[in-house]
Amino acid sequence: MEGQTSWDSYYGDNAHHFKQSTDGNEEAEFDMVSLESFLPNDVLERILSFLPIASLFKAACVCKRWYDVIHSRKAIWAYRAPKKPWYFMFTCNDTAAGYAYDPDLRKWYNLELPCIEKRNWFISSSSGLVCFMDSNTRSRIFVCNPITRNRRKLLEVPGVKFPDYSALAISMDMESNDYDVVVVKTKQVPEDFLQWELSIHIYESQSELWVTLATEVLVGWRGGDEGVICKGILYCLIHCTGVVGNPIRQGLLMYDLAAKSSGALMSASISVPCSLTCGKLMNLNDKLVLVGGIAKLDRPDIIKGIGIWELHQKEWRDVARMPPKYFQGFGEFDDVFASSGSDDLIYIQSYGATALLAYDMSRRQWRWSQKCPVTKRFPLQLFTGFCFLPRPEVAT
């Protein structure tokens, strides 16, 4: 397809041997001598570190020495300047096919994700790793690096087998490369719509085991499908199932993973800033950020704007509102849209189109992405996605 770049054309595993021949009857082999052959490894690593990630893997095919340097996962990655998070956009309703967007080069790559089979799986990312959970059985969980396709399948999560709602979150320590995966399960108490059993389970990569941290029956509230880990605290959006007249139907549940809090879960909950649709929690440089659609008072199924908030202590602070010209650029929103963020970048897209908008928290700047190479083919075709940091040195 014109306008796209195949990731496979960059990602090579074989180094090549170059051979030169003379034009006459006699054939001769020459040892090819190049400037790089005189360079020590540390200088070569520094030079290669300036290449874009896609070009870096293509360079690994030049010769065995370059391959070894690039795939050694050593100093070459330490030299690299931090890259902005990429955004992977699912472009098919039934499969996990899609494209990855590089905001530094403003380029799309045809990237095939490992592990995931359908786009409706639960997804969470942290520091170069992405975690996928099967949306049907909730029993298959994978952690992978989408750039190198390195992957690991985790043990089955304990607790109820078929929860009504599940939330998935992953957190990786940049120094130790250890990571934690948390699954929050919610199951309705039989024949009682007001009572919901919520349980929190954590997987630690060091022990390679699951541990159940807490189980509690919530009254008038239930868990949902949105959670994130920020500075060792698990944050989950919860939803009101009680009095209909409650103006704000969502709340934020907090749980200290390190302290393994033993108190009542609802005692550490607060309200969201306003009634929201498509609320999304994000860890942006160890700051908890909430993105959500602000519904019209007379038409709760239609949103009038999109807001961004940051949590300070237990208070929400306004960060930004999407300007009207960008909001209108999506066309009319219904009550669903996708958002995802990492570092200082937040991506927002409508489920009904491939238009992708990014908000830079540090610069307070909105910007459209380069146009995605896929166009909408039929009215019910939906698009969604997630962001991740491109870090080839990270392994599962």
TrEMBL record:
SMART domains: FBOX
SUPFAM superfamilies registered for this protein in UniProt: F-box domain (SSF81383), Galactose oxidase, central domain (SSF50965)
InterPro entries in UniProt: F-box-like_dom_sf (IPR036047), F-box_dom (IPR001810), FBXO31/39 (IPR045048), Gal_Oxase/kelch_b-propeller (IPR011043), Kelch-typ_b-propeller (IPR015915), KIB1-4_b-propeller (IPR005174)
Keyword presence, S-adenosyl-L-methionine: no
Gene3D superfamilies registered for this protein in UniProt: 1.20.1280.50, Kelch-type beta propeller
Pfam family, one: F-box-like
Keyword Nuclease: no
Domain F-box span(s) in chain numbering: 33-80
Keywords recorded for this protein, A-Z: Ubl conjugation pathway
Pathway the protein acts in: Protein modification; protein ubiquitination
Name of the protein: F-box domain-containing protein
Upper taxonomic lineage: Eukaryota, Viridiplantae, Streptophyta, Embryophyta, Tracheophyta
